[in-house]
From TrEMBL:
The lineage of its organism: Bacteria, Pseudomonadati, Pseudomonadota, Alphaproteobacteria, Hyphomicrobiales. Residues 136-259 form the GFO/IDH/MocA-like oxidoreductase domain. PANTHER family: D-GLUCOSIDE 3-DEHYDROGENASE, UDP-N-ACETYL-2-AMINO-2-DEOXY-D-GLUCURONATE OXIDASE. Residues 9-126 form the Gfo/Idh/MocA-like oxidoreductase N-terminal domain. This is Gfo/Idh/MocA family oxidoreductase. It comes from the Bacteria. Gene3D superfamilies: Dihydrodipicolinate Reductase, domain 2, NAD(P)-binding Rossmann-like Domain. InterPro entries: Gfo/Idh/MocA-like_OxRdtase_N, Gfo/Idh/MocA_Oxidoreductase, GFO_IDH_MocA-like_dom, NAD(P)-bd_dom_sf. One of its GO terms (molecular function) is nucleotide binding.
Length: 345
């Protein structure tokens, strides 16, 4: 039994479109993390998923919660199905790692974070862009202060999602299931990465729209100005109406250098004339018609960080609390777009 104690036990709930990189990551982490079972309501699709990735199926969600070898639950359901699942996991004393966003509304997200805090369980939120080598290299440089003070930021998420085959899926592009459009469903990754490097936002001035390229309830184009707490300013454009879709890019302008993250590469342009690059160019980033076209290694690094955090009794890199920062920024952008004025975050 010694082997069982050494490995981190994980139960998985939900096995839809977003589960593929998780399954690949978990297979790559087999020596450290044991998947004790996967559960989703549709038995046929569950069996197919488990066969495809050689993972064990669970009889029910309750069975996972009752299994003493399960240390944590990985929640991969749509955001509208989260609150009860997390509450049940907390009651069973299981730690929780969940796909972004935390929930559809910031209020529901805050309730989930509070439930985990109260139960004393660790809550991690999947924002795999932080785990690219280039992102980690920039995070270290920002933390060390060697780049100087942040003055300005530009974020562009120029993605494409087709109506046919993507938005035509039941529930997609609706407030009831997704809670919002391009910001909470797609650009949330880049916004989280930006905030992890810039620090929190103070106020925004934005414009939001749904273009004629999509028949959806939610926004597919946002342009906004951001004022950060530390005095820096920023601008962002996020869309799923940019055919055929391009890689997102984040540029941060510091006193001593400008740093650009795009396609998994960090480029540092120092004001003294030096140039540095870190990372390998990713062939795809999920910016085009296939939302799952990206490497699974980032998920692998994040799942490993979460398991290590739980075992070491520390907080993971991406927590429920850090996720609330990005939820509040998204709320402010949407409200600013609706009201046509500057909104405090």
């Amino acid at each position: 039994m010694a082997h069982e104690h050494r490995n981190f036990g994980l139960g998985v709930v939900g096995a839809g479109m977003g589960a593929k990189p998780h399954a690949l990551a978990l297979n790559a982490l087999k020596d450290r993390i044991s998947v004790r079972g996967v559960y989703r309501r549709n038995r046929e699709q569950l069996d197919q998923f488990c066969r495809e990735y050689d993972l064990p199926a669970a009889a029910s969600y309750e069975a996972l919660l009752e299994d003493p070898s399960v240390d944590a639950i990985l929640v991969l359901t749509t955001p509208n199905a989260r609150e009860e699942l997390v509450a049940a996991a907390c009651k069973a004393g299981k730690h929780v790692l969940m796909e972004k966003p935390v929930e559809r509304s910031t209020e529901a997200a805050e309730r989930i974070v509070a439930t985990c805090d109260k139960a004393g369980v660790t809550l991690g939120v999947i924002f795999q862009h932080r785990f690219r080598a280039a992102s980690q290299a920039l995070a270290q440089k920002v933390a060390s202060g060697e780049l100087g003070t942040l003055q300005a930021a530009q974020l562009v998420v120029p993605w494409w999602r087709p109506q046919q085959g993507y938005y035509d899926q039941p529930g997609r592009g609706t407030f009831a299931q997704d809670g919002g459009g391009v910001l909470i469903t797609q650009a949330i990754h880049s916004l989280d990465l930006m905030l992890s490097l810039t620090g929190p936002a103070k106020a925004v001035t934005a414009m939001t729209a749904t273009t004629g390229l999509h028949r959806i309830e939610t926004e597919d184009f946002v342009a906004g100005g951001v004022e950060f707490v530390n005095g820096a300013v920023g601008g962002l454009i996020a869309t799923t109406a940019n055919f055929p879709g391009g890689p997102e890019s984040l540029t941060l302008n510091f006193d001593k250098a400008s740093a650009t993250l795009t396609r998994g590469v960090l480029t540092l342009n120092w004001l003294d004339g030096r140039t540095e690059t870190v990372g390998e160019e990713a062939s795809t980033s999920g910016g085009g018609a296939d939302p799952m076209a990206f490497p699974f290694q980032w998920h692998q690094a994040q799942i490993a960080d979460f398991a290590e955090a739980v075992q070491a009794g520390r907080q993971p890199v991406s927590t429920g609390h850090t996720a609330l920062n990005v939820h509040r920024l998204i709320d402010a952008l949407i409200r600013s777009g609706k009201e046509g004025k500057r909104v405090e975050v």
